[in-house]
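User: Can you predict the 3D structure for this chain?
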Amino acid sequence: MTDIITVGASTIAPTVVLGYSSERAAQNIVHPILGAESPDVTLRPALLRSGTLSLGFSDTGSEGSSRAAETLLAAVGVGSLASTDRATVAMPFVVVGTVRRELEDATRNAWIVTFGYQETA
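Assistant: Here is the predicted structure, written as structure tokens:
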């Protein structure tokens, strides 16, 4: 699987995507009516996807690509996620919350970069 994240003119190509989660917040509004069994409802479309993405980098002997990914994701800009194997995850997004970079525990030869995202139109 080839996954690529682009922000501006820069590209991140992680060794592996370790985790991807998405959710969509509903925006329907329920209005309780005094003395009535059923409420009035205002139907509204759900928001675009948001969630968390975890990227693995096997930086054996070097921390370069994981550090570059952390720096790029912390910069201002709209990113783009593309995947050759999972077309449904492709999207433009902005980073929300924190960008976390940590040393993988088992081998101590890989890095994990995790961040929250909000899909944009």
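Residues 3-119 form a domain with the Elongation Factor Tu (Ef-tu); domain 3 fold (CATH 2.40.30.200). The mean pLDDT is 92.
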